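Batch manifest line 644
LIGAND: magnesium ion
JOB: complex structure
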Amino acid sequence: MSTLEIKDLHVTVDTEDGAKEILKGVDLVIKDGETHAIMGPNGSGKSTLAYSIAGHPKYTVTQGSITLDGVDVLAMTVDERARAGLFLAMQYPVEVPGVSVSNFLRTAKTAIDGEAPKLRTWVKDVNAAMERVKMDTAFATRNVNEGFSGGEKKRHEIVQLELLNPKVAVLDETDSGLDIDALKIVSEGVNRFREQGDRGVLLITHYTRILRYIKPDFVHVFVAGQIAEQGGPELAEQLEAEGYDKYVTAAATA
Amino acid sequence: MTVTETARESVAAALEQEKVLSHLHPEGSFLVEDHPVPTGREEIWRFTPLKRLRGLHQDADLSGLLVAAEADVPAGVVLERLGADSPLKGSSGYVPTDRISARAWAAATVGYGLTIPAEADLADPIVVTVTGTGTEVASATHAVITAGPHSRATVVVKYVGSATLADNVEIVVGDGAQLTVVSIDDWADDAVHIGHRHARVGRDATFRHIDVSFGGDVVRHDSTADYSGPGGSVEMLGLYFADEGQFIEHRLFVDHNQPKTKSHVVYKGALQGEGAHTVWIGNVLIRKVAEGIETYEENRNLVLTDGCRADSVPNLEIETGEIEGAGHASATGRFDDQQLFYLRSRGIEESEARRLVVHGFFNDLIRKIGVPEIEKQLLETVEAELEKTV
Ligand SMILES: Nc1ncnc2c1ncn2[C@@H]1O[C@H](COP(=O)(O)OP(=O)(O)OP(=O)(O)O)[C@@H](O)[C@H]1O
Ligand SMILES: [Mg+2]
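JOB STATUS: finished
ARTIFACT:
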């Protein structure tokens, strides 16, 4: 049983003109087994929220708290957060020249588990995870994300999700840049993760189409660094029909 | 074409080669007095800490016999002591381009000649270990490595121990030969090594030079190559790791003096600790005769801590428009925050993430070496260097 709790989160980013507030008081509770979708227009702060949870050094939390099962996440380093059970699938996965996928995955698995995985089963597990997302196992010998297409990078994030099996996964626009087949494959990966029953998912997306494959329990509309509205899956359908206009206008005049 | 025409053409070509006044190509001379004592303001000396050269660039005694070379060679390969008047000396066409090289040329009483016979195909690398046993008196040595026509071989030259050394290494790659020379400076911390290597690459021959520098106090390598016929190919790979207070300089010069020749240069370095300083000068000259050539040179430096300095200067001088391709790249940077964040977000501790990134930085280069035992050893050396600080 694990709960990620975000309370009154304010976050700034350093710019040339000083600190700029991006998140302006975010409240969100993700209990285990729950999938929350966060939807919002470009620039509303969705990635900022994802990065803040993961601890990216570019962002400064100025107010509020993030806890995982009551433990202060903000006091942890980036890698401690991952070892505590948080995972971020990035909107733009990073290329790491000269580091092979297989070395990367093994090092990460060892770090998360606190011991090296059994060699024999590990190779099988990696191959199986790759095959499930229809990634050629030859990718294991390539450098991390280097020269991967946008879709391949996203599949690689899902491979990591399955192998590292965190408590709470934050997926930042894992659907963007995917064609319909890849979208299904990636969604199936997320659903396999969810089917374990006690895993939390924060699914950040700009479009509603992924929600046809991954059914959220809650939908939050994110505008100008805040949650402007929340509801059940029906809210996604409403957004599909009406777009974000009414929220954006409301935020601008507020 | 008649014989006389051919002769006239080659005379014209020779004349053409001589009249190039390239700033990349200092006029050589065997006479020490033609090379005045440098002040440090000269282009070729402006980065080098002359004060730390123990007088090699001035008039320091070079009579030390504190360096010895040893090698096991397979049957057919000739390893000989190289006396001051050996006919091998000068066979690469090299003419000393600076005072230290000219002094070493004149003073060298020890050295070796290593000759691989024509068409020999050697599976295992020949390892030459050059051991220094003291820094009190400077030593000068001379080596000539010759790969006979159509031979194939790998020679590894390892420098270990303590020394104050000025050396010239000539490399002659016969027509159609494939020669790889791996040079590893794994000196003790107090060594000073000013080395010059020149390769003359034959028609359709392939020469690969892999220059690895880890140890020593001051290490400066001038590595130059030219061609004795068309179709030759030169690959120069370099890997260096400078620690606190260490100075490592690489000066390269590829002289495309023949048509249809190729050169590919990639040097990568990492720096860590106060006062670590590296210099990379990559000079490529494409002469008028050198039509249809291809050249690429690249230098990348990874600065791991504060207080380091990496200088990187690629120079390309082109005298013909008829080339296949020419390019260069140079970049010096710190750890990429995004890479570290990505790795750490997968649970990998910061120190481990840094290790992965540094290994990654060198890995692509190490994989290109193609000599498995050297690749393995270098991975371990990188690891050992990283243990020092990161
Ligand atoms: N270094 C920075 N300097 C200035 N503004 C920044 C900086 N980094 C982020 N921002 C701003 O913060 C806001 C939120 O960005 P964020 O990436 O979180 O948005 P998003 O909702 O994920 O958008 P998208 O849908 O395009 O991915 C944007 O207006 C962005 O321009
Ligand atoms: Mg975003």
